Structure formats: structure tokens, C-alpha cells
């Protein structure tokens, strides 16, 4: 039987362990943290798959037929990840899209900080469209043992030690980097394991996909309008799910650029720097691509606040560079 002749796949756990052996002073804490995130991801994946069946995709605070309180899936995902990170013990504080303040975990001895969007694109769930989790990991700057501060969390994108996302799509995937390239793992439901399916992902220097919400076209900066005009002249492929992880992942694999410029409604852009732009920028650069806000490389930005927004142009390096140059032409 040909199928049985296939070599046993590499599980995420084994891959993480192997990589740890490459770092002579590794203590295993980051590895454990990545495993904690993967475990919470499996639980959230199960919650999402049941979304249509159980009453959990309704409005937060609304009541179901039995008059019971319902939680929205993004609220549930937030609870799952925070719980996993608190129990895992490797994280001293968390920034989440769902919480206005820094969340101390009580593990003051832990040396890592996590920024997370537990369920991005959740407005898509009711229509059974892909959603994702995005995460970013930093080392704290204050000494371990002390109470973590907001200063531990507000670090330049370049300071990330790891970043990744989980895409709950037609199959569920976890993609992450620790600064040595990008690897993708696909979830095998029957075995309950992520298997290495996309080793060392590289993104094309130029792609033929552009992704943006064209409904906002009239609000876009002139540079972006011109760029999009060029895309259409060249008959590039327009693809936009409106679910960042899905749009990003497709372009990463196929080559292309994702744009979320400043608009009238969102003059600073819509996407959040710390748990949307930074992690994806780190991943794209590790895959050979680029990310900027029109003026600066995303990873060079020093955040002032946890939930700050930024315009985002991300994907194939040459395409991002073209957008960047056009911004200067029109500055
Ligand atoms: P969310 O964090 O409230 O889910 O919003 C983020 C989402 C992204 O997934 C997506 O890329 C973007 O918002 C879509 O915005 P728009 O509907 O304005 O095109
Ligand atoms: Mg989001």
C-alpha cells in the first residue's frame, strides 16, 4: 500500500523540540509557550467547527431560546488563549485585542510577553468564512520576578522572538517563525496533531494578486489609488476575503500584496500594530517578503500604546517597495 509507505510526518511538538536543540542555551520555555498556544488553538478550532451547531456564534450578551447567556466566539477564544497562557506558566503578561488593559498572568517569574488577536475576522463566522488567531511573543524588559509593566509590552516589532498565526480555514493550519524562516503545519483532525506540511515557506518577490477593500478606494491616499490603477492595467488578480489571516496566508503562498491604507473612517488605518501588523510583518520578512505603513518598515515602528493602529502594505517585496516609493512621490 503506497500510503503506508509514506514516512511518518513530523509533528509540531517534535519540530519544536528539534529546533530547541539548535539553541545551546535554550531552557525550553519558549518551546513550551508555543505548545501552549497550539493546544489552545486546537480547542478554539473545535469551538469554531461547532459554531453553526451550538449557539455560540450569536451576539455577546444576547440570550438563546432557553434564556441562557451566550458568548460570542471571539470572547470564547480570548478566554481559551488567556487560560492556556496563564496555566502554561511561561508568560508574565498578555495584550489581547479583546481587553483594553494589559493582562498580568500572575506568573511574575516568567520571561515572556504575548500580544494576541484571539479570533480575527470574527464578523465572518456567521457566513462560515475563514478566521484566524494571530500572536506575537517578546521577552520582557524588566527583571523577572517583578510585576510586569506596560513598558514590557510596548516594544519595537524587531524585538519579537516569535510570531505566528492559526488559520481556521478549509483546513486548519499553524504557521510560525522564531527568526529562522517560516514553517507551516496542517492539523490532522483524526490524530489531533499538527503536522509539518509547509517547511521553509518563501514568498515570491513579485506576485499577481492584490488584496484590499476596494469599497474604500475614494478614501485611499493618491499613491495607493495609483498603485491599484496599475494593478488593474496589468490585469492582476483581485482577491479579498476581509479576513486578514486568510488574505495574508493566500498571498504568502501564492505571491501578492495586501493593502489596508488609512481611510476617512480609520485615519490611522484599521489594523492593530501589536497583534496584527507586527506578527505578520515578522513572518513575511522571514519568508523573504516585506511590510511597510507607507512611510516606514513596520518592524521599525515603536508603539506608543497597546491598541494603536497602522496602515499596512504587506506581501511580496517588490510590490511593497513599489507602494512605498509611490508614497514618497506623492508626499
Ligand atoms: P477585526 O479585528 O475586528 O476582526 O477586524 C480586522 C479585520 C481583518 O481581518 C480584515 O482584514 C479587515 O478587518 C477587513 O476590514 P474591512 O471590512 O474594512 O475590509
Ligand atoms: Mg483583529
UniProtKB/TrEMBL annotation:
Record localization: Cytoplasm
E.C. numbers: 3.1.3.11
Gene giving rise to this polypeptide: fbp
CDD domains in UniProt: FBPase
Reactions accelerated catalytically: beta-D-fructose 1,6-bisphosphate + H2O = beta-D-fructose 6-phosphate + phosphate
InterPro entries listed in its UniProt record: FBPase_C_dom, FBPase_class-1, FBPase_N, FBPtase
Species lineage: Bacteria, Pseudomonadati, Bacteroidota, Cytophagia, Cytophagales
UniProt superkingdom: Bacteria
Family statement: Belongs to the FBPase class 1 family.
Predominant place of localization: cytoplasm
Cofactor(s) for this UniProt protein: Mg(2+)
Fructose-1-6-bisphosphatase class I N-terminal domain location: 10-199
Comment on bound cofactor: Binds 2 magnesium ions per subunit.
Name of the molecule in the record: Fructose-1,6-bisphosphatase class 1
Fructose-1-6-bisphosphatase class 1 C-terminal domain segment(s): 206-326
Protein source organism: Rhodocytophaga aerolata
Top EC group: hydrolase
Amino acid at each position: 500500500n503506497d500510503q503506508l509507505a509514506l514516512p511518518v510526518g513530523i509533528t509540531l511538538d517534535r519540530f519544536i523540540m528539534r529546533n530547541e536543540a539548535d539553541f545551546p542555551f535554550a531552557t525550553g520555555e519558549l518551546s513550551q509557550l508555543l505548545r501552549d498556544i497550539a493546544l489552545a488553538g486546537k480547542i478554539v478550532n473545535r469551538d469554531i467547527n461547532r459554531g453553526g451547531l451550538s449557539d455560540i456564534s450569536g451576539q455577546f450578551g444576547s440570550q438563546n431560546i432557553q434564556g441562557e447567556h451566550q458568548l460570542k466566539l471571539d470572547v470564547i477564544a480570548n478566554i481559551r488563549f488567556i487560560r492556556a497562557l496563564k496555566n502554561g506558566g511561561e508568560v508574565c503578561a498578555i495584550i489581547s485585542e479583546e481587553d483594553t488593559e494589559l493582562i498580568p498572568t500572575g506568573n511574575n517569574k516568567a520571561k515572556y510577553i504575548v500580544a494576541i488577536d484571539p479570533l480575527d475576522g470574527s464578523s465572518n463566522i456567521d457566513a462560515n468564512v475563514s478566521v484566524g488567531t494571530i500572536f506575537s511573543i517578546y521577552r520582557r524588559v524588566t527583571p523577572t520576578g517583578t510585576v510586569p509593566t506596560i513598558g514590557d509590552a510596548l516594544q519595537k516589532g524587531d524585538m519579537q522572538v516569535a510570531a505566528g498565526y492559526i488559520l481556521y480555514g478549509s483546513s486548519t493550519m499553524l504557521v510560525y517563525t522564531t527568526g529562522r524562516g517560516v514553517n507551516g503545519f496542517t492539523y490532522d483532525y483524526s490524530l489531533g496533531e499538527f503536522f509539518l506540511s509547509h517547511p521553509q515557506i518563501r514568498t515570491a518577490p513579485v506576485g499577481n494578486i492584490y488584496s484590499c477593500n476596494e469599497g474604500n478606494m475614494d478614501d485611499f491616499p493618491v499613491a495607493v489609488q495609483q498603485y491599484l490603477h496599475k494593478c488593474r492595467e496589468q490585469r492582476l488578480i483581485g482577491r479579498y476575503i476581509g479576513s486578514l489571516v486568510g488574505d495574508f496566508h493566500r498571498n504568502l503562498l501564492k505571491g501578492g500584496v495586501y493593502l489596508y491604507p488609512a481611510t476617512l473612517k480609520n485615519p490611522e488605518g484599521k489594523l492593530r500594530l501589536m497583534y496584527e501588523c507586527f506578527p505578520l510583518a515578522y513572518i513575511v520578512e522571514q519568508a523573504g517578503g516585506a511590510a511597510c505603513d507607507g512611510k516606514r518598515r513596520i518592524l521599525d515602528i515603536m508603539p506608543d500604546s497597546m491598541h494603536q493602529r497602522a496602515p499596512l502594505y504587506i506581501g511580496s517585496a517588490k510590490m511593497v517597495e513599489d507602494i512605498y516609493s509611490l508614497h514618497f512621490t506623492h508626499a
